[in-house]
Amino acid sequence: MTGFGVQVRDLTVRYGPTTALDQVSFEIRPGVITGLLGRNGSGKTTFLSVAAAFRRGTSGAVLVDGEDPWENARVMGGTCLVRESGDVVADEPITENLRFLAERRPTFDRATAESLLDRLEIDPSKRPDKLSRGQRSAFGVVVGVATRAPLTLLDEVHLGMDAPARYAFYDALLADWMAHPRTIVVSSHLIDEVERLLEDVVILDHGRVLAADDAATLREQGLTVTGPADEVDAFVTSRRVVARQTLGRTAQATVIGTAPDDEARARAAGLELGAVGLQDLFVHLTDHAGDRAAAPLTPQESR
Amino acid sequence: MFDGREPLYVQIADQIRDDVLSGALQAEEQVMSTTQYATTFRINPATAAKAFAELVDEGVLYKRRGVGMFVAPGARETLRAERRESFFTDVVDPVLAQARVLGIDVDEIVARLREHAAHDHPTPQAGTR
Amino acid sequence: MTAAASFAAPTTAGPGYLVGQVWPTARWLLGRSLFLALWFWGLVVVAVTAATVVVAVVGEPAISILAFARHGAIWFPFAVFITVSGAYLPVHVAAGLTRRSMALGAILAAAATAVVYGVVFSVLLVVERAVYSAAGWQWQFFDDLSAGAGPGTFVPASLVTSLVANLSGLLVGMAFQRGGGWWGTVTLPVTAGPILLVSALFAADTGPIATDTWFGGRGLSVPVAVTGGLLVAAAMAFAFDRLARGATVPVRAT
């Protein structure tokens, strides 16, 4: 076993009249880096909070390593949720915070924490409440990586960090994960940046699961078709078109779903096929400009 | 590196194919491990593993248990044969199509190619091995 | 395999849980409250000494000046323990520890803090009385501690009142945490009221509110008052534990 897996079954979370998660079901594979993608308010933080026993769901279940995490000392002890706000002792120096964690987390590695602090240029004698926003986020990252929890949940931790710090974080996370395999969930909307780290992807939108699959499979479900407008139209007939652009008589359509004879047909019609980036796919899937509710990518699997 | 729109694992596989074709990777030579790929290019090792799996299926790479991935004997020839086949459809045909649009005569293209070939290889008959 | 072997997280019960979760929690919270106690008592000693000198210069002290610190000694740690539910709870849960262990650790820290405040206050009173008698002044505890103002009364009175005050701080903080501002305020008579109640068990006059009629105009005998105070404390500890176990760690904006 390399880390805790997570099973989400019909999880609903309501805050008063607001439904943050609406009967979602998906799985997070143990030992894998999963990206939890979604726009603000999609339910990412709510899900992570339930998984880390920060709060309870309204109905349904989240099982972490097979058990309900709520007040479960074993599961909570093996789960580390780092939120952007950072739940650290704000008025004690970072060195004191490291001692605090080392005493409570059996898997915490102080040497890793110290070398990461050094790499991210954070002065360990400072108090978290005296750090800049970016440095506070970076300290959260240090806690998340060095805790080495079997289930590590990083909720938008890179917000406020500048680009060099973010890339240092991606490198450190990947390197530490390879040396100590465990389950990591990274929630983000900087998809282009984190995409390379991810093996699996869960896309949430308005409290529902739009897609849950491995990143490569997900990407392959999208396709761009470019060429003469009438040929493009003929090619995409009866397919799910999520975007269409025209420039003169040339058109480009983005479709969801592929067929085995796509390449042959495209060649015959003089059309060019292209891949869709995860970022583009995400934007198309979660774009509600047309008042049309987004449809799940793989209805059978996502529910 | 690896910035195109194609999925990363496709780009990695293409890169290895190119290296085998060009001779940068010889038969029986070990390729970088998934871990090395991951740390070098900041990618999830599963992505490199997917590229390797594809190349193993194609017979370009083979796995030595506990050691790593190696270039299969004959991989270069296999790839060459494949690329030659697609050379005309992928490279030559679009040139002709473009030439037709621009009103360039086929003879002009042939002359141009001959001229270049003569420049690169003074004895064209020594030819295409 | 290597990673899995090191995933020994604290177990749910037994000494591992107490040693791994409850004990560090109690020690941490106690450490912070003692740090603040040091400041509090330091300032009290300085202020009382200065006031005694001033009074001695202009006249002759007739009552204990230190006794005026009594309400501060109740309400200051009360305020300190209010912050546990709001500020410490997220840190605790984020460190992978259960609310149960937080409740137990906080109750232990509250009790230990009460002992420290009770003992320090009593010792200072004894010292003050010794100073008064050496100077030939009359020493008198200004509150009407009905059973007499000797150590036999003020030691248990200070200890039990302090314990109830600290637990009350925990309870008030948790009520605000669980129920928000409105419920937190509405429940104050139940969450903070016990401080007045227990003070009234020991004295006929507990300061801001006249309680002299609560028990027929007299405080109760010390054993009865101590027993009553401890029962109230137990009920509060139980209530705090129950509320803490259901507490949500809120989403905070930075």
From TrEMBL, chain A:
A GO term, aspect molecular function: ATP hydrolysis activity
Residue ranges occupied by any ABC transporter domain in the UniProt entry: 6-231
Coiled-coil annotated residue ranges, if any: none
Keyword set includes DNA-binding: no
Keywords per UniProt: ATP-binding, Nucleotide-binding
Keyword tRNA processing attributed: no
SUPFAM superfamilies the record matches: P-loop containing nucleoside triphosphate hydrolases (SSF52540)
Superkingdom as given in the UniProt entry: Bacteria
Pfam family, one: ABC_tran
UniProt protein name: ABC transporter
Automatic annotation (TrEMBL), chain B:
Pfam families named among the record's database cross-references: GntR
Gene Ontology MF: a single term: DNA-binding transcription factor activity
Superkingdom of source: Bacteria
Keywords: DNA-binding, Transcription, Transcription regulation
Keyword Signal among record annotations: no
Keyword DNA-binding: yes
Xref: SUPFAM superfamilies: Winged helix' DNA-binding domain
CDD domains: WHTH_GntR (cd07377)
Residue stretches making up the HTH gntR-type domain: 6-74
Stated name of the protein: GntR family transcriptional regulator
Organism: Cellulomonas chitinilytica
TrEMBL record, chain C:
Transmembrane segments: 34-58, 73-91, 103-127, 154-175, 182-202, 222-240
Entry keyword Transmembrane: yes
Entry keyword annotation includes Transmembrane helix: yes
Record's keyword terms, sorted: Membrane, Transmembrane, Transmembrane helix
Name of protein: Uncharacterized protein
Lineage: Bacteria, Bacillati, Actinomycetota, Actinomycetes, Micrococcales
